[in-house]
Design brief:
By secondary structure, this protein is of the alpha+beta class. The chain contains five helices and five strands. It starts with a helix and ends with a strand.
């Protein structure tokens, strides 16, 4: 009986230890409870903000998808949420948004879009009408100040591709 406690402690610490390849548990789909809570609070806090009246916004985003969302992602929904939570925590801790985007986003190359409230879209220059984007993407963009980061959580109607971690550029 005295051997069970040390063995359990060893087993739990091995689950949380960094992998040999340098990835942490969150990169292996094991969510940190604090990161998931922070992600959910960030989403709720952003949804409670009032939208500003800028005629256009330019944003950069990291899309974290999962299997079945119309992308090539193969992770599960739970793994996608854990990864989004981990990336948000890393961004808030000071890691470079653009670098994390390159290594993790399920969006096509670039991931930078300008949205306009009204007026013509110009897809060649990646300018889209707000109504042509998934609702949560525009809703998030218009609630952020320049330089701020926010999250649109997965929702089958408003954010059908997964979690969008969005930074407003202009």
């Amino acid at each position: 009986m005295k051997m069970i406690a040390p063995l359990l402690l060893l087993a739990f610490s091995a689950c949380a230890a960094p992998a040999v390849d340098g990835t942490g548990p969150e990169d292996r789909g094991v969510p940190a409870v604090d990161d998931l809570t922070a992600l959910r609070h960030a989403v709720a806090g952003l949804e409670a903000r009032v939208e500003h009246d800028a005629p256009r916004v330019k944003v950069e985003h990291i899309l974290i998808s999962f299997a079945g969302t119309g992308t090539s992602a193969t992770r599960t929904r739970a793994e996608a949420e854990a990864l989004a939570a981990s990336l948000l925590a890393r961004i808030e801790a000071g890691e470079d948004f653009s670098t994390l985007k390159v290594g993790h986003s399920d969006d096509g190359p670039g991931g930078i879009y300008t949205m306009v409230q009204q007026g013509p879209a110009d897809r060649e220059n990646l300018i889209f009408s707000r109504r042509s984007m998934v609702a949560a993407f525009g809703n998030t963009g218009w609630r952020l100040e320049v330089g701020q980061v926010g999250v649109a959580q997965y929702d089958p109607q408003a954010s059908k591709y997964g979690w969008h971690i969005i930074r407003r550029l202009e």
